[in-house]
Structures are given as C-alpha cells and as structure tokens.
Amino acid sequence: MLDLKGYGPALMEGAIITIELAFLSLVLAVFLGLIGAASKLSQNRLLRGGATAYTTLIRGVPDLVMMLLFYYGGQVAVNNLSDLIYDAYGVDFFFQFDPFIAGVLTIGLIFGAYMTETFRGAFLAVDEGQIEAAKAYGFTRWHTFRRVMIPQMMRHALPGLGNNWQVLLKTTALVSIIGLTDMVRVAEQAAKAERSPFLFFIPVAIMYLLITAGSELFIKWLNKRANAGVIQGD
Amino acid sequence: MPEMIAEWLNQNDIFTATTMLHYWGGLVTTVQLVFLSLVLGLIIAVPLAILRTLRNPFVSGPVWLYTYLFRGTPLLIQLYVIYYGIAQIEGIQDTFWWEIFRAAFYPALLAFTLNTAAYTTEILRGAIMATPQGEIEAAKAYGMSWLMRIRRIVLPSAARRAVQAYSNEVIFMLHASAIASVVTIVDLTGAARDIYSRFYAPFDAFIAVALIYMVLTFTLIYGFKRLEHRLLRHLRPVGS
Q1: Chain B interface includes A85 (CB < 8 A)
Q2: At CA B119, angle to CA B146 and CA A163, rounded to 5?
Q3: Residues A204-217: pLDDT tens digits?
Q4: Residue A182 contacts by C-beta under 8 Å, 6 or more apart in sequence?
Q5: Which has the least CB within 10 A, A21, A139, B28, B80?
Q6: What does the DSSP assignment read for B73-136?
Q7: What is the pLDDT of residues B91-108, one digit of tens each?
Q8: Residues A84, A89, A90, A95, CA torsion sign
Q9: How far is A172 from chain B (nearest CA, A)?
C-alpha cells in the first residue's frame, strides 16, 4: 500500500531505537527525579541547594544545546581521560562516546529536573499522618520512604509523570541531530536521497502520534489502578 | 572595566571580537525568530481558541485536529516537513514565494509559528472554558452581544488565567528555537556550533551559549512574573 522505496525496515529499526532511547531516558529521569525531590524536601541545606541549582540550571538551557555539549564535550572529556591514563599507567584505551549514550544522559538529566518538580508536589500531597504512623511503627527513614511515601505519592505523581513522558518522547527526535540513526534520521536521509519529504516524514509523524496515543491509554489505565479505592469527588 | 574586558579578550584565543560578533548575530536571529513566531502564533491562536470552544463539532473539530497533530509530533519533524516540503510544491520556484521561502529563515518561522499557535490555542481554550459562569450571565443581563461578551468579558478574564501557562510556552519556544540551527540558520546555537567546529572547544562554545540562553530565560521569567503581578493585582490581599 505504502511504497517506502526500500526504507521500510530501516525506519522500523529507527522506531525501535527511538523507543529504547525514550525508555532508558525515562528510567534515568525517574531515578534522578526521586533523588531530586527527596533532596528538595530534606532538612539538609546543602542537598536542598544542590537540587534547586540542578532544576534551575536545566530550566535555563535548551535541550539541544545541552545535548551538543554532552556529545561533543563528552568525547573530549573521555579523550582527555584516556590520555591521562596512558600517561600515568601506560594503558591504552579508546572509548567512542556515542550519540545514544549522550542522548540518554541528556534527556534523562533534563527530564530528571521536571520529574523532581512533579515528585516534590506529589510527596507533599502524602498525608502527614502516614509518615507519623510509619514512625510509630519504628520504620527507618529509608523504609518510610520506600514503603509509605513512594506508593502513596505515585498516585499524585502519575498525571505529571504522564505529561513529562509525552514531552520526553518528542524530545528524543533531537538525538537524530547528533547522529543517532533513530527514525527521524532515517526519514531525513531517505527524504533527501529520494527527494520526497512527505513520503518519509508523514509516516514518522504518525508513528509518534501512535506512540503518544498508546501511552495516553496506558497512563489512563495506570491512573485508574493507582486510584483504586480512592473516593473521588466530582 | 573596559580595559579589563579588552585585556581578557586579548588573552584568550576563543572569545575574540570576531567570535563575540558571531554570537551577537546569532542572538539577533534567535530573538527575531522567537519573537516573530510568538506574536504571529498568538494572533492565530486567539480566534482558534474561540472556535475551539464552540459547540458545533464542524467548527471545533478541525481546530482540535490541528492542535492534536502539532502537539503530538516533534517540532523537528514539522520543521523538516516544511523546510524540505516547500521546495517540492509544483511550480513554486517560478513564483515570488520562492524568493521568500528559499532561505531557511521563513520555513523555520512558519514551522515555529504553527507549532506555538497550536499550544497557545489549547492554553487559551483552557482559560476560556474556566470563565466563571456568573461573569457571562452578568454580561448577558447587560444585553451584551456575543462578540462584545467575548471581547470585553471572556478574553480579558481568560488572559489573566492564561499568563502563567503562556509564560511556560514562551520559554519552551525559546529553547525549541535552537533546532533552527539544523536547517542552516545561524541562530545562537548555530553560532555556538560554528565556534565549536572552528576551535574544537566544545566546553567553551556551548557553555557560553548556554549562559546566554539562561540570561534570556530568566529575564523572560522575571518579566512574566511582573506582568502576572500587575494583571492579578485585584486578587491580592488588601495592604500587601
């Protein structure tokens, strides 16, 4: 039906890379977001300051600039490190800093900052009495965090988390600029070679729409599950 | 102070006057691109948002589809489709439009405008929908026509509610404009990429440009805070 001039399989592989990239970045972002939110709510002034600096810094800089900095800067940093190791120990190693790693690191770091804000709000929404009850049961702080705080705050965090995920997914398109052969890059190369931009970009756009629509349904389902047993007012 | 700056400029190899001018040119392009697309986007978004709130599905449906498509796909794809796609339109090379769209600036402006208009439409729609029913009833009781109600009651009241979300959209647009550098435009990011490849100094080139973006971002955030403060002054407690 749709003649992709032999680029079909490459586009499919690109789509898989896009999804892998998005998932790994999401995992990193959630991890950083939990740490960030916990630091922002902690008593320790140093941790609070660090988390605030992190979120402020990320909000001020475009994602593409950060990605370029990580990709090109990362390679220079790795090269310098390998020079240092060679001089000191005579061990010769070379590490190619590839766009996939740079992409996951950058997107994870950026969305970690947004997740920090989401989780911070969600943690604040957990009833104080729950934490007191955990204390009364002799839970340690880590135990309270993992067993009481996280399960209960997830319910409040889900809508924000879902929004962040949708934006994150679209941000992965940027990684094609630093040379990762995701579906955007395949489409761009194919469009240039075949001189038919619509033929290749429209299916990729539809692919993005399908993924976002699918995740929307999934988030709705999760939301329903997470709110099971909660009586919601109208 | 000027001597100090001159001395510092003479001492380092990367941030020479030429480089600084290159960054300056990029800054001008970025500001132009972002400002124009935001203004045009807002002009498109206001009527679309009103249409989007109408009950007739044949009116609100197409607007929904437009915002859904533009918000559901990456801006980079939209830019590529417009940038590469315009040259493919039959016979465009013979019309005067070709003079305009041959350079990368106008396709990028078009893509950014359509994108921000879609987001702004949804922001405004939310704000319009949240208009207190009493305000509209009061306007009706005064015998205002639909147009006058929209103009005098609904839009001013919605604008106040929309400022916060719109400021986020402005920041988002400023950051998203960095992808203009991909289609050969020398904006701030484009300038940084040039300087990086000239000196092979990624940290200097990109950290400098990141700082410029940060200054722009926080200036905008401050400006919107002031605006919000002004617009919502009737909601402040007395005496504060």
Answers
A1: no
A2: 125
A3: 999 999 999 999 89
A4: A14, A15, A17, A18, A21, A172, A173, A175, A176
A5: B28
A6: S-HHHHHHHHHHHHTTSTTGGGSTHHHHHSSSHHHHHHHHHHHHHHHHHHHHHHHHHTS-HHHH
A7: 777 777 777 777 888 889
A8: negative
A9: 9
